[in-house]
């Protein structure tokens, strides 16, 4: 049984919708920037339409990307890097937790109000339920990690040390650039949704240019773009 067409009822073509969502989520652009760029290409839509598109289709695209990548990412269980950053919402501090594998793939993003043992344990259980248990878990010296890892019988897998967690810290940079372009977030639900979608899109287009030859980079970039254009297709 074929699934229903998610683009049914929309006047714009699926190609335009995918392009708008990719431009907004992948690059540090505002909604009005995307509107102007589409206008230069002969597509007349408002920035509110772009906002609706990414909220409607962004999670769908991200879910399909995650399904495809989880199937072929058994190696992600070798080593994880865990880290958290603070994000302000209406003047209040929240924490965005990230689990990153040894290749820089963002496995999980989770937002909490605190960064105590309870929050770390919930984040760990959610990550392990979806991706399995890793052999090595690299963290900073936050005590919440050690206490949470004891609860899941993984304390012996924890490693801490200076510069060991650069993988996780570097994974925050693309999100910080997007946060500045969006002039921060206003609701915790919006933060959680965007962080999850942004992580999947970043993983999809991350080709590690510095580690590839120019012909190989062009090949993988074209393959990623072709796969994106086929997301949620009938």
Could you list some keywords that capture this structure?
single chain, 234 residues, alpha/beta, Nucleotidyltransferase, domain 5, 5-stranded mixed sheet, 5 strands, 52% helix, 15% strand
What would you say this structure looks like, in words?
It is built from 8 helices and 5 strands; from the N terminus they run H-H-H-E-E-E-H-E-H-E-H-H-H. It is of the alpha/beta class. It has 2 domains: 81 residues, no CATH class; 113 residues, Nucleotidyltransferase, domain 5. The chain has a 5-stranded mixed beta sheet with strand order 3-2-1-4-5, sandwiched between helices. The radius of gyration is 19 Å and the shape is globular. The model has no long low-confidence stretch (mean pLDDT 91).
Write the layout of secondary structure elements.
Blueprint: H1 14-26, H2 31-40, H3 47-71, E1 79-89, E2 92-101, E3 106-112, H4 117-131, E4 136-139, H5 143-151, E5 158-160, H6 166-181, H7 188-205, H8 214-229
Parallel strand pairs: 1-4, 4-5
Antiparallel strand pairs: 1-2, 2-3
Helix pairs in contact: 1-3, 2-3, 3-7, 4-5
| Spatial separation of the terminal alpha carbons | 11 Å
Task: Please bin the fraction of helical residues.
Answer: 40-55%
User: What is the residue-averaged pLDDT?
Assistant: 91
Q: Give the CA-based shape.
A: globular
Share in β-strands: 5-15%
CATH superfamily of the largest domain: Ribonuclease H-like superfamily/Ribonuclease H
Number of helices in the DSSP assignment: 8
Low-confidence stretches: none
CATH 2nd-level architecture of the largest domain: 2-Layer Sandwich
At CATH level 3, the topology of the largest domain is Nucleotidyltransferase, domain 5
CATH class category of the largest domain: Alpha Beta
Strand order of the largest sheet: 3-2-1-4-5
How many strands, which pairing sense, and closed or not: the largest β-sheet? 5 strands, mixed
Q: What would you report as the Rg, rounded to the nearest angstrom?
A: 19 Å
């Amino acid at each position: 049984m074929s699934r229903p067409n998610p683009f049914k009822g929309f006047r714009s073509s699926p190609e335009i919708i995918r392009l708008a969502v990719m431009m907004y989520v992948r690059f540090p652009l505002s909604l009005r920037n995307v509107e102007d760029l589409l206008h230069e290409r002969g597509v007349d839509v408002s920035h509110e339409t772009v906002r609706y598109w990414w909220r409607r289709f962004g999670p769908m695209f991200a879910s399909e990307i995650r399904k495809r990548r989880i199937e072929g990412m058994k190696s992600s269980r070798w080593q994880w890097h865990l880290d958290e950053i603070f994000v302000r919402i209406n003047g209040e501090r929240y924490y965005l937790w990230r689990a990153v594998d040894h290749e820089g793939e963002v496995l999980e993003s989770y937002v909490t109000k605190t960064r105590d043992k309870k929050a770390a344990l919930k984040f760990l259980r959610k990550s392990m339920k979806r991706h399995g248990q890793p052999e090595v878990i690299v963290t900073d010296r936050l005590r919440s990690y050690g206490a949470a890892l004891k609860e899941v019988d993984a304390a012996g897998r924890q490693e801490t040390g200076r510069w060991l967690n650069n993988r996780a810290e570097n994974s925050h940079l693309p999100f910080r650039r997007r946060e500045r372009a969006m002039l921060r977030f206003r609701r915790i639900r919006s933060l959680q949704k965007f962080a999850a979608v942004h992580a999947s899109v970043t993983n999809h287009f991350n080709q590690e240019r510095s580690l590839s030859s120019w012909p190989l980079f062009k090949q993988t970039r074209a393959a990623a773009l072709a796969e994106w254009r086929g997301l949620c297709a009938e």
